[in-house]
Design a protein that fits this description.
There is one protein chain. By secondary structure, the protein is mainly beta. It has a single domain, classed as Sandwich (Immunoglobulin-like). Helices cover 13% and strands 43% of the residues. It has one helix and ten strands, in the order αββββββββββ. It is elongated.
Length: 148
């Protein structure tokens, strides 16, 4: 009788362990690679007033674990062209109502801007807002959307 109750206890413990095991939230972190779908390696948008077309070419994975880095390329009539002013670039998470730390912008050549220190601090929907400003006046604005 005692052996049967011990076996029953072990069986119950085994069944409890079997049904309670699931995927740990700690293991559900996305891998350090580009997320497919909306986050294509290159995206294009056009300013409404200046007619400059911008494209983003990612040089790093797009995720919340790695430091992001991309090239912002400006063209006008399919020819590389400088923007009228150095763009302002910032990260914004609309669902949370906050952004991230400032990015670093460096002009590399005609119409080519190196954007580094891109930190998506958590998973979710993010906008990379790009503005052309004269002082506090916003001349033009566009954004690229990413879902991490």
């Amino acid at each position: 009788m005692k052996a049967k109750s011990i076996a029953l206890i072990f069986l119950l413990l085994f069944l409890f362990t079997l049904i309670s095991c699931g995927k740990s939230p700690l293991l559900m972190k996305k891998p350090a690679e580009e997320i497919q779908g909306q986050n294509a390696l290159e995206s294009e948008r056009k300013f409404s007033t200046s007619a400059h077309q911008l494209s983003i070419t990612w040089l790093s994975p797009i995720n919340s674990t790695d430091v992001g880095h991309f090239l912002l390329i400006s063209k006008k009539d399919k020819i590389a062209s400088d923007l009228p002013v150095i763009p302002t670039v910032f990260l914004w998470m609309p669902s949370m109502g906050h952004g991230s730390s400032p990015v670093t912008i460096k002009k590399l050549g005609v119409g080519v801007y190196d954007i580094s220190d891109v930190y998506f601090i958590m998973d979710g929907d993010w906008h990379i807002k790009i503005q052309l400003r004269m002082g506090s006046q916003i001349l033009d604005e566009l954004y690229f959307s990413y879902n991490l």
